[in-house]
């Protein structure tokens, strides 16, 4: 439970994993890889970060949403695995940022999620990443991120 201890040291409390909002599952395993469905910044079962980044919402606002994604993602992975110490490596994140026309700093928003993964997992938290601007996300969320995670093969 070293990873969960590190999460607590950072002042983060993992919520219960949210149930899917449509016809999908939160986590799918293929061999020693977990594919984590796009997570949105929900808190206590309610949308926490909505709106377009640019004039309507600040980069800092969107960064908070991206960090909340990490919390929600780890809750989903813990619910699936039972123990976050089974995570070997964060392989890739793909971030979608609800952006106003002309906003070109999606990579900065995604970096907030990347930095938190590094704080939690150290070098194993470093990953490949894509950051994409989009004109709309479901329910007007500010950010949605999906992940690929390597786990111990025999777990």
TrEMBL record:
Superkingdom of this protein's organism: Bacteria
Domain Endoribonuclease L-PSP/chorismate mutase-like: 5-140
Gene3D superfamilies given in the database record: RutC-like
Matching InterPro entries: Endoribo_LPSP/chorism_mut-like (IPR013813), RutC-like_sf (IPR035959)
Signal sequence coordinates: none
PANTHER family: ENDORIBONUCLEASE L-PSP_CHORISMATE MUTASE-LIKE DOMAIN-CONTAINING PROTEIN, ENDORIBONUCLEASE-RELATED
Protein name: Putative translation initiation inhibitor, yjgF family
Protein source organism: Mesotoga prima MesG1.Ag.4.2
């Amino acid at each position: 439970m070293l990873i969960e201890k590190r999460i607590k040291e950072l002042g983060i409390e993992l919520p219960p994993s949210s149930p899917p909002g449509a016809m999908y599952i939160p986590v799918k395993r293929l061999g020693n890889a977990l594919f984590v469905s796009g997570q949105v910044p929900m808190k206590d079962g309610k949308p926490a970060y909505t709106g377009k980044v640019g004039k309507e919402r600040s980069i800092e606002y969107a960064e908070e949403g991206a960090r909340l994604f990490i919390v929600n993602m780890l809750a989903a992975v813990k619910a699936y695995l039972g123990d976050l110490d089974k995570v070997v490596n964060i392989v890739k994140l793909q971030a979608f940022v609800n952006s106003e026309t002309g906003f070109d700093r999606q990579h900065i928003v995604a970096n907030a999620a990347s930095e938190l993964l590094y704080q939690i997992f150290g070098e194993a938290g470093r990953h490949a990443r894509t950051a994409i601007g989009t004109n709309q996300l479901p329910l007007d969320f500010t950010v949605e991120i999906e992940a690929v995670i390597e786990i111990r093969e025999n777990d």
